[in-house]
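Action item from last meeting closed. Structure (959 res):
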């Protein structure tokens, strides 16, 4: 059994002289059968939860009442004659009991199918069950923005633990016996209405609008008990807790009058529902009052919802599922993965569409349902919030999505491009990459290297398709500005201040995704222009700076403030920013320093430079000239940028020297080819030995020694040389591009607790990027070391989620966080029978630009005709796969699919059956007998043995 949160230790758990009346009241209300039969103890939540805010006098009144029976004031007076002697004081006592939630009340209103009610009559008081009931109501109270709860949870945090325990204990060991429909227990899922609008067999009861129309005029909304209590337990999800839970009928009136909510209209309720669907929340309705009667409609985040936990933790979907199941139409699915990201139950994962070599389909493991096998705690999934966020089956999915560090939905936007849906394609890309125009020019194309089509002829020109799509971002009238999806129904933005230090791809990506969550972050950049290495490290013939500015303008339009010429640690300190109200910092300063090897001659007065500095100065002034020969030491893309820049500055005989062989060079093939086409020599297999100086101490040349191997047998960098084979090269300038370093300056003051390893690299949690200084997060090159822009973009996006969690009260930093783990399908075991035999399309070169000497980008974009032809070459090898046993029929997936590839079908009509709570054991008992007989008579039937095998396979796949 999951342990109770250590965040709160209930003070009354250790009462030496517990209240006998409160103990008896707990026994009266509880559904925990051992406690009902043998009594409640002081360590049980039924005691310490009630004792937190219930007085003995309140308990005395509660003990005179039957659970879920209605009593008028006069009836209660007769039942409590001593207290009723002072009717005014007794009324106040009942009001206090109602205010805290120990009692509910209604006015006997009747709601017919047209939404009309009978005239309001006298108030009727009820002693509710614990859940949904008093344990939940103890946590409900209207609050103001930015505050958890006005009073109660601040004064009595133990009631949060009380609610959590009372949603767990009664169902531990019981949920597998509960029949479809829930048998009057808790809540159950009601699907997204537009997902079933074309289902002919749908019932009125399965539509949200039906319930809201039925109770129109008596609709209210209030604080979500799950959100606020889980935050109190430090397991929050970062949502604003107000205005998610919709009260209906008498319950709406009760909440308004006791300060637990306020009235809203039908239209306002529908807007809340739509907002929830945008954010991927599950609609649930109360399920304890029998057919055609509910009192609440909740919009639930699975990471905190105690009602969804009843089916997810106990691994018994029947407990809460709707009548519907999601099904994927494979021919339409393009494995964009958005249904997977949002599926609350983890029922949808990415798989493959292609057959195996033998022509068979890949078989996917399914969760085993409890009606087939003996059930026990080994079937529980206590880590369901993390496990439900797994993206992929172990057999893998589309290699392009897997290989891309940002896991962009490549197959999705390529398919949209084929259909001419360019705006949709741009929106899809920017869910994972805010800089598609930039990446379309400078990405190192790992998606293309992994492309399945490459095993047949040539990979799809993914990057060029993306570049074409992203041209829209370069023009104000067509660029895509994403919506701001703040998880709140009363706020348009968060007031929490977050500072981002460094305006490179990691910092700007973080700012972008924070802005889409409703923040207004501030980015501090020490240079005169934002962009980091995109602006100051990549030559314009590869990435013209108007492209960078255009995509940064989108971030500004989202409300991000970028302050340039401000060096944190010099112009302003972290402590000064904290004093200004900044709650968290994302340090993404990159690797702005360079490395010079420890060889003789590096003390030369002039002629030695490092790549980062050289490229920065080159971008500041493209009219400068270089005299004499130039040698660039290094074999990566940065080294190539340096030597090609030097050539454009008029350097004599610019050439590269690197340790690696041509095949081992880290620079990509396109860069190497273009360098050679510019008549620049690349000398492989040489390492620097000594720098030669002239009489004035300036660089005169460099001596290289032959490199015989770069890595040792274990693959570690350990170059070996033949000291006797050397080469002397005369030159006036040497540029070292052999690695980059971090320049912290005064950013981290003496009191910061950030720790370091491998020199001055910061230590941080691999999942959250949080350092030992809790409010400082790091990412991009400063954390990982020099990588590519797309790696930094992914780091920034993941950091935005961590920063959001950090600044919101009581958030867990890890629970339910998408680990972004993807697995590539086995390209050696696929069958591709039909495919377009057209060759790969390549963009043209602008022949009016002299590629050898110009700083202009001569690479043109694919034509629209080429884009559609190239997109048609995609094999569409990935697809989403639904485990229908695990699906709870919420329909969230359908709202995220831009291809109409996933739909709900009414496969479980029995799940709509609703019964009163008072009849639950009759229905549970009947189902339990039927289930037990089925299992007993099967005598380990082949079906059950197969089910056990499936369960083991499922557990293995999800370990």
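Sequence:
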């Amino acid at each position: 059994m999951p342990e109770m949160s250590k965040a709160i230790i209930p003070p009354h758990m250790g009462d030496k002289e517990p209240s006998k009346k409160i103990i008896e009241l707990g026994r009266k209300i509880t559904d925990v059968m051992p406690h009902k039969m043998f009594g409640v103890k002081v360590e049980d939540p039924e005691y310490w939860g009630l004792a937190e805010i219930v007085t003995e006098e309140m308990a005395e009144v509660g003990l005179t009442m039957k659970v879920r029976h209605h009593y008028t004031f006069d009836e209660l007076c007769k039942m409590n004659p001593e207290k009723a002697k002072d009717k005014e004081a007794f009324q106040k006592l009942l009001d206090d009991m109602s205010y805290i939630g120990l009692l509910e009340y209604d006015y006997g209103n009747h709601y017919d199918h047209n939404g009309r009610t009978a005239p309001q009559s006298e108030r009727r008081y009820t002693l509710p069950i614990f859940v949904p009931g008093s344990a939940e109501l103890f946590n409900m109270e209207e609050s103001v923005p930015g505050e958890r709860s006005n009073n109660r949870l601040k004064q009595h945090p133990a009631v949060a633990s009380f609610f959590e325990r009372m949603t767990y204990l009664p169902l531990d060991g019981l949920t597998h016996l509960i029949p479809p429909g829930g048998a009057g227990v808790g809540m159950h899922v009601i699907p997204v209405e537009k997902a079933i609008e074309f289902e002919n067999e749908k019932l009125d009861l399965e539509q949200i609008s039906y319930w809201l129309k039925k109770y129109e005029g008596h609709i209210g909304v209030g604080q979500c008990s799950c959100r606020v209590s889980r935050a109190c337990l430090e397991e929050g999800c970062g949502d604003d807790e107000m205005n998610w839970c919709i009260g209906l009928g008498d319950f709406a009136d009760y909440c308004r009058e006791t300060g637990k909510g306020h009235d809203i209209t039908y239209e306002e309720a529908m807007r809340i529902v739509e907002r929830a669907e945008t954010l991927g929340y599950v609609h649930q309705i109360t399920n304890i009052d029998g057919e055609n009667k509910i009192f609440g409609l909740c919009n639930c985040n699975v990471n905190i919802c105690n009602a969804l936990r009843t089916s997810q933790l106990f691994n018994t979907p029947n407990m809460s599922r709707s009548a519907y199941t999601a099904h994927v139409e494979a021919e339409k699915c393009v494995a964009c993965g958005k249904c997977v990201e949002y599926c609350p139950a983890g029922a949808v994962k990415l798989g493959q569409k292609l057959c195996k070599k033998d022509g068979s389909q890949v078989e996917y493991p399914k969760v085993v349902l409890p009606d087939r096998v003996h059930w026990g705690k080994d079937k529980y999934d206590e880590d369901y919030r993390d496990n439900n966020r797994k993206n992929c089956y172990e057999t893998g999915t589309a290699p392009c999505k897997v290989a891309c560090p940002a896991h962009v939905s490549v197959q999705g936007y390529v398919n949209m491009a084929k259909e001419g849906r360019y705006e949709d394609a741009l929106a899809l890309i920017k869910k994972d990459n805010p800089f598609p125009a930039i990446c379309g020019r400078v990405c190192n194309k790992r998606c293309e290297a992994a492309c399945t089509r490459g095993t047949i002829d040539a990979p799809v020109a993914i990057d060029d398709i993306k570049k074409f799509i992203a041209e829209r971002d370069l023009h104000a009238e067509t660029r895509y500005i994403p919506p701001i999806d703040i998880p709140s129904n009363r706020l348009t933005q968060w007031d929490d201040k977050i500072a981002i230090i460094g305006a490179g791809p990691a910092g700007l990506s973080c700012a972008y995704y924070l802005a889409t969550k409703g923040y207004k972050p501030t980015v501090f950049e020490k240079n005169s222009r934002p962009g980091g290495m995109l602006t100051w490290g990549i030559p314009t013939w590869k990435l013209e700076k108007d492209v960078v500015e255009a995509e940064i303008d989108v971030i500004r339009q989202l409300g991000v403030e970028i302050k340039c010429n401000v060096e944190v640690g010099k112009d302003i300190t972290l402590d000064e920013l904290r004093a200004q109200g900044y709650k968290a910092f994302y340090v993404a300063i990159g690797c702005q320093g360079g490395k010079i090897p420890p060889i003789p001659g590096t003390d030369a007065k002039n002629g030695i430079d490092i790549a980062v500095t050289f490229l920065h100065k080159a971008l500041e002034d493209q009219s400068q000239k270089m005299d004499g020969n130039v040698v660039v030491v290094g074999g990566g893309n940065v080294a190539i940028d340096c030597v090609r820049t030097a050539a454009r500055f008029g350097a004599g005989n610019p050439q590269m020297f690197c340790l690696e062989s041509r095949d081992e060079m880290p620079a990509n093939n396109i860069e190497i080819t273009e360098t050679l086409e510019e008549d620049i020599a690349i000398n492989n297999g040489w390492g620097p030995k000594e720098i030669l100086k002239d009489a004035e101490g300036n660089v005169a040349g460099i001596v290289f020694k032959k490199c015989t191997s770069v890595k040792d047998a274990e693959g570690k960098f350990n170059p070996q040389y033949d000291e006797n084979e050397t080469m002397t090269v005369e030159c006036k300038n040497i540029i070292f591009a052999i690695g980059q370093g971090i320049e912290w300056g005064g950013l981290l003051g003496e009191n910061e607790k950030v720790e370091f390893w491998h020199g001055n690299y910061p230590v941080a949690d691999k999942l959250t990027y949080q350092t030992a200084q809790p409010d400082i997060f790091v990412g991009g090159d400063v954390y990982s070391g020099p990588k590519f822009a797309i790696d930094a973009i992914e780091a920034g996006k993941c950091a935005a989620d961590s920063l959001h969690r950090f600044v919101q009260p009581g958030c867990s930093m890890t629970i339910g966080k998408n680990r972004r783990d993807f697995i590539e399908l086995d390209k050696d075991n696929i069958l591709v029978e039909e495919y377009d035999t057209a060759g790969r399309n390549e963009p043209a070169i602008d022949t009016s630009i002299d590629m050898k000497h110009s700083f202009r980008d001569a690479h043109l974009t694919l034509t629209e005709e080429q884009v559609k032809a190239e997109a048609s070459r995609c094999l569409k090898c990935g697809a989403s796969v639904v485990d229908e046993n695990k699906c709870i029929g919420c329909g969230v997936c359908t709202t995220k699919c831009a291809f109409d590839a996933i739909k709900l079908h009414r496969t479980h009509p029995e799940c709509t059956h609703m019964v009163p709570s008072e009849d639950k054991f009759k229905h549970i008992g009947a189902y339990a007998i039927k289930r037990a007989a089925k299992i007993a008579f099967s005598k380990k039937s082949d079906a059950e043995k197969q089910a056990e095998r499936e369960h083991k396979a499922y557990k293995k796949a999800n370990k």
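Note appended to the action item: The chain has a mean pLDDT of 94.
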